[in-house]
Amino acid sequence: MSYYINLSILSNKQDNPHGTERKKNVSAEARRILSLCEGRPITDDNMAREAGGRPFFPGSDMDFSISHSGNLAAVSLVTGKGLRTGCDVELVRPRKGAGKIAEELFTASEREYIGSGGGFDLTRFYHIWTLKECFLKLKGLSVFDMRGAPSFVSGEGTYTFSTAVSSPILFNLYELSGNADERYILAIVIEGTEIKQPGIRWFSQEDLSCKSIAKINAAPSPAETVSPKI
């Protein structure tokens, strides 16, 4: 099997990271990465969609998930029979209504984690958001299903995955940063009977430093499940 998270950061000298043109450019960059990985130009005609709209390549053992935010494009890609993946990346920036989102969609232990420093920790908010979002993408669900997503923080102060699983699941949470005062939180997940750590590949001249924040390993056997401390 192979498992990679493929990344590309666009130049900050172009459009601002919140502009419409930048969103189009970074979306196109994600499609370019997928095309390079697949070895052919990828269009919507090459893909089919599951009932919930999740794209896939018919008859292929390759599974993928695309996300982009700010100037960063991310493509999680896994090859192997029965393997699935999901990814989400978010630029750490003030988000209107973040507190209300956490109150409505996050569990009590997750909200406690976000506020454990005496205030609302925006970076920790994005930790939870990206973990939940990559899980929803793995399962072919949408952000409207986030309220029912498992909790990623236990009452004992560890990262966790609070739902029983039939196949092993591995989450990786990263923080990416560079010289332009931009920080990103990236969460990726792989599900299947054969699990391995992802490789990281850059498809841009510039890259960002990448720090691992957490690895959450959920296994059908509780004794094999690892819940790292926060």
Question: What is the secondary structure topology, with strand pairs?
Answer:
Layout: E1 2-9, H1 20-38, E2 48-49, E3 55-56, E4 62-69, E5 72-79, E6 84-91, H2 98-105, H3 108-114, H4 122-138, E7 169-177, E8 183-191, E9 199-202, E10 209-218
Parallel strand pairs: 1-9
Antiparallel strand pairs: 1-5, 2-3, 4-5, 6-8, 7-8, 7-10
Helix pairs in contact: 3-4
Please explain how this structure is put together.
The chain is about 20% helix and about 30% strand. The protein has about 230 residues and is α+β, with helices and mostly antiparallel strands. It has one domain. It has a 4-stranded mixed β-sheet with strand order 4-5-1-9, with helices on one face. It has a 4-stranded antiparallel β-sheet with strand order 6-8-7-10, covered by helices on one side. Strands 2-3 form a two-stranded antiparallel sheet. A hairpin with a 2-residue loop joins strand 4 (about 60-70) and strand 5. The longest helix is centred in the N-terminal third of the chain and has 19 residues, at about 20-40.
